[in-house]
């Protein structure tokens, strides 16, 4: 696998439903058959950069663009001076408060000649680029068009190769607050979703970011680092139309402004924030064979031959019958992301009630393989330190408001 290029279809395990209508070669990449050592991407280095070929960009511009997006996104947009705002993480919800897409939004503040040459916009009206999962770019464009009504805006999906999304990270800047910002002439932002996520940059016409660190790495290797940090992304991990923003950690990752005015899907999100308890969250997990020792730390093994299940596989306690402890979402090698009941699978305490968790408890997934019959794997959830820190900050703010 050549660095800087993507596989025909990501070899990270994906939902079975996506296999319909694919060629035999594409289905082979999505199968649950064990991958050889050469099939698994290497772990990311401490510093590096990657072109995110699984992302697409939607251009939106016009005099009403800022006000229009303000009524649709969970993050706050400066409607009075949008060009003074750097890029940021956000999401779009449906009317029921379920996540449609998690995105980055980049206000574009550049001279008129640059805007015209790069087709960001043709005049000085507010202009934005929306960085979205490539597989659902058309779905998001249709959602945006649905609410356009009489707003003076223009929408288009950027053609492949016209613009590229890059991530650059450095081991010297593990704290996202101190990550290097994009150059003034670039479009992008610091990726504040979790410490160590680095900088996100959008470049025009095949260019690389002006500042890079380390060697170029593949998008599959980038995804391994992201999963190890517990950062979900895209419709396969934040399941479109089903996932709730808080359960998907969009609040922890800075994608929700709970003080802004009305937007589509706000009611359930705000009510959960002020009166509810978020009992499930997406966490990084490690899978291991039933006869193996439980891992103490989260570690990616590129030499594993473990078979992973399809998405949405149920997680339950070993040797115990009862309600589901969680749901498997997506993985590569021996690691992945799962939606976990916090007080069942981890030591996180949400209320004063007695927790169901015990350090002796182990959890498993059981499923029927297309070839080979029933398969079982044990699975352990890990709570990232940045999760615990943001729980403490949330509790402190709630105590102030009591």
Q: If helices are DSSP runs of H or I spanning 4 or more residues, what is the number of helices?
A: 8
Assess the beta-strand content as a share of residues. 15-25%
Give the ordered list of helices and strands. HEEHEEHEHEEEEEHHEEEEHEEH
Question: Could you give the count of β-strands?
Answer: 16
Alpha carbon gyration radius: 21 Å
Q: What composes the largest sheet?
A: 6 strands, antiparallel, barrel
Specify the helix fraction band.
10-25%
Distance between the termini: 55 Å
General form: globular
Which structural class matches the secondary elements? Answer: alpha+beta
- Mean pLDDT across every amino acid position: 83
Structure description:
The structure is a single chain. By secondary structure, the protein is α+β, with helices and mostly antiparallel strands. The chain is 17% helix and 25% strand. The chain has a six-stranded antiparallel barrel with strand order 11-14-13-12-15-16. It has a five-stranded mixed sheet with strand order 8-9-7-1-10. It has a five-stranded antiparallel sheet with strand order 3-4-5-2-6, covered by helices on one side. The termini are far apart.
